[in-house]
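so the lab meeting is tmrw and i was supposed to have these ready like two days ago... anyway. pasting both below. for each one the top line is the aa sequence and the line under it is the structure tokens. i havent really looked at them closely yet so no promises
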Amino acid sequence: MLTINSVKNGIVIDHIRAGYGMKIFNYLELNKAKYSVALIMNAVSEKLGRKDIIKIENNLELDFTVLGFIDPNITIDIIKDEKIYKKIKLKLPDKIENIIECKNPRCVTSVEKNIPHIFNLVDEKTGAYRCEYCDQIYENLSKYL
């Protein structure tokens, strides 16, 4: 049996879709951390079947927009004195900016380098986003991270 100690003060990123934990780990650059970090992959979950979990023994400033974009099912637990102080349920953000780039070669963002890459959510069920400039629609954009 695998044993990971509880977090005394820090953050637990829970209910990550199985296989996405490493994507979040890399995005947050936790490999450079000077504090304890645990990445648990393929843990058994009643709700999801399998899930990933990241435990961080430190309080970080997290961009919930990006994490919700990567996986809207994520739950963030803020831990103080080994107890859940605050629980945050994420969702797909209505708008994302400069997280990914539009791949349409005719988009103005392909020519002009100082224009922010902005996408708006058009379908929450499929996770489809539309480029604000060229109207190109992308589904499953988190694969571009």
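ok protien two:
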Amino acid sequence: MAKYLISFPSAAMAVPDGEMEAVGRDAHAVIEQAKAAGVYVFAGGIDENVPPVLVSADRMVTEGGYPWARPLDGGLTVLDLPSREEAVAWAARLAKACLCAQELRVFGFDPQS
């Protein structure tokens, strides 16, 4: 089993007027299916009203994220799945529910975690 990150940036969600409630309902239904299947780890969205901060090793806090990186926003789901094929299938379900393509990444296994 591997943990897969399924995500999308906020700009990818071009939901037609009046359909956001249905998109939310459909996305939550997929999450409930993942929970029922026993593959759910975590899901949520980045709170874009709270700006990021950089924290250094000496605990210095600097407002803003890395200036050279694109902003991290949108939604994400982490699932524990037996194969990439299963991950693609779940990503397709979320893409259909959210009305936008999903990025799929696998977490590297850390035996000490």
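from a quick look at the 2nd one: The domain at 2-106 is CATH 3.30.70.1060 (Alpha-Beta Plaits). Residues 20-36 form the longest helix (17 residues). will dig more after coffe
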